[in-house]
């Protein structure tokens, strides 16, 4: 099967608020975010957003920020994907302009881990090392670990890094890229950061 050539990307994720009112926190974060630039669907396990890269990352960050504002400890886990075979439906969202819908500059510390899977790219380890170097240059690298890399800092720096990394880890020749991310926000382990 051929990989898609559509510039559409997707993010499937779940929020796990460590709070008794988790339903309110999840639904509140999804509802308070302007999702007009992406296709979105929520089910009992996760939510998927699809569209232009700039909007997918903007909406993902805004949802995390809204959940974080509750002050509750939030875990988020998700997968970004580009060039997936079959990723051509929902292309109407590609006609959206590049102006982002959610602007919120609230500072928020996040600790996270990510992993890149450059599909069908024989030089995938070079790609991964290059992106880890990028994290160090951007000042968001936290630590090396098995099967992932630790990325932390202000949510705006962390998301800017993820978006940049997602752009550079794929190419015309190797369009299909998967990136997994898990985040921890307002964790007692962060000592009030
Ligand atoms: C982003 C995101 N989307 C969906 C779920 C799944 N989910 C778990 S509880 C709940 C609310 C009650 O229906 C939903 C939709 C999730 N955890 N995070």
TrEMBL record:
Residues 9-87, 111-189 form the Thiamin/hydroxymethyl pyrimidine-binding YkoF putative domain. InterPro entries: HMP/thiamine-bd, MTH1187/YkoF-like, Thiamin/HMP-bd_put_YkoF. This is YkoF family thiamine/hydroxymethylpyrimidine-binding protein. The lineage of its organism: Bacteria, Bacillati, Bacillota, Bacilli, Bacillales.
């Amino acid at each position: 099967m051929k990989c898609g050539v559509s510039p559409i990307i997707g993010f499937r994720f779940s929020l796990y608020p460590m709070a008794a009112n988790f339903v309110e926190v999840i639904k509140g974060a999804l509802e308070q975010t302007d999702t007009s630039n992406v296709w979105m669907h929520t089910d009992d396990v996760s939510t998927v957003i699809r569209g232009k890269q700039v909007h997918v990352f903007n909406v993902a960050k805004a949802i995390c920020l809204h959940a974080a504002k509750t002050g509750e400890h939030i875990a988020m886990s998700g997968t970004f994907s580009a060039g997936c075979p079959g990723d051509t439906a929902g292309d109407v969202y590609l006609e959206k302009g590049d102006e982002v819908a959610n602007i919120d500059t609230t500072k928020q510390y996040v600790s996270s881990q990510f992993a890149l899977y450059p599909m069908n790219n024989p030089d995938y380890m070079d790609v991964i090392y290059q992106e880890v170097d990028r994290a160090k240059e951007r000042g968001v690298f936290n630590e090396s670990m098995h099967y992932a890399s630790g990325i932390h800092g202000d949510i705006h720096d962390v998301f800017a890094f993820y978006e940049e990394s997602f752009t550079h880890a794929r190419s015309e020749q190797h369009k299909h890229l998967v990136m997994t991310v898990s985040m921890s926000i307002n964790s007692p382990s962060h000592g009030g950061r």
